[in-house]
Write a structure and sequence with these properties.
39% of the residues lie in helices and 21% in strands. By secondary structure, the chain is α/β, with parallel strands linked by helices.
């Protein structure tokens, strides 16, 4: 298609994106600082070009068609690329930036890691904002990274998506967390104890990925009984006291909660692989100065965690030194 016959322009794409957000011509017009007739005319042009109504009336709102839903992610990616081309290449300064950093994270990292991140951001980027987005089966983090809804996702799935960029944050061993009065707390778990025991098992954070424990047990054709299933990791430690339940997790997570609750940490009888925690990001952010800074901060903060002895106390000055020498 030649430049002259290209039916699209940036304005039409922005109108489409705003209409998908607002589901209303009047609200979209207000946000675009355009008149309602102008936005209606743009919608008519889009319908003519694409041969689809795109949004149809349903009582007091507009509902997108299947075609519109299919196009939405692609349009946002295109607009993101255009915005990147037009954006000024000013030097990034953490001390003055007002950027919002968005990190997708499950709760299987012990709270001190995020506490250290927040402390460092408040000291070095006091005008920036941080949004921590919880992950779940109904959240498409890959699409969120692609369209700019998220900057970074922290994960520990055995097979991270190959099309995303990745660096390791920390590695940790798998342990079992039990009540201090658990029958095996004073000795050790046998394979029979583990397989016949009652387990707390969190829901998975990704429909496409099994966790390290589940993947390894499936490979060995072993099964454990999920006696209690919880919606997120941080709930599990509080359910252990006074029960015979077993919770299999990373050592740094177990040690953090064992310091606050009457819990014991046991070596699992199965030789689980190391848990590897990493940060993922989309290739569209690779050259961004602010994004590179965020990734370096996450890496430096993660290095304040000792994977064999749990989290040390926050040492922000050491994180600063580490970043300065990168």
């Amino acid at each position: 298609m030649t430049r002259a016959s290209d039916p699209f322009d940036t304005y039409l794409l922005r109108v489409f994106s705003m209409l998908m957000d607002e589901r209303s011509v009047s609200r979209a017009a207000a946000r675009l600082d355009q008149s309602q007739p102008a936005v209606s005319a743009a919608l008519k042009r889009l319908r003519d070009i694409l041969g689809d109504p795109l949004l149809v009336k349903d009582k007091q709102r507009m509902v997108p068609t299947e075609r519109a839903l299919q196009l939405e992610a692609s349009v946002r990616i295109v607009l993101g690329g255009i915005d990147s081309l037009l954006a000024p290449t000013a030097e990034f300064d953490p001390a003055t930036t007002k950027l919002v950093f968005r990190v997708g994270t499950p709760d299987y990292l012990a709270p001190p890691l995020m506490a250290n991140l927040v402390s460092y951001l408040r000291l070095t980027a006091p005008r920036a904002r941080l949004v921590l987005q919880p992950l779940g089966n109904d959240y498409d983090y890959e699409a969120a990274l692609a369209n700019g809804e998220l900057d970074v996702v922290i994960g520990n799935w055995p097979q991270p998506p190959e099309h995303l960029r990745m660096t390791i944050l920390l590695e940790d061993e798998v342990v079992c967390l039990v009540c201090r009065d658990h029958p095996c707390a004073g000795s050790h778990l046998t394979v029979a104890d583990y397989l016949n025991g009652a387990h707390i098992v969190p829901l998975t954070y990704s429909v496409m990925q099994r966790g390290v424990v589940e993947s390894h047990m499936a490979a060995l054709r072993l099964h454990r009984e999920a006696t209690v299933t919880v919606p997120y990791f941080s709930m599990a430690p509080s359910l252990l006291p006074g029960t015979d339940l077993i919770f299999t997790t990373s050592r740094h997570f177990a040690e953090h909660h064992a310091r606050a609750l009457p819990l014991a940490i046991l070596k699992p009888p199965i030789d689980f692989p190391v848990m590897r925690f990493y940060q993922l990001w989309h290739n569209r952010c690779q050259q961004s100065q602010s994004h590179a800074w965020l990734r370096s901060v996450l890496s430096a903060v993660a290095r304040t965690a000792d994977a064999t002895q749990g989290f040390r106390a926050a040492r922000i000055s050491s994180v600063k030194t580490d970043l300065l020498h990168k």
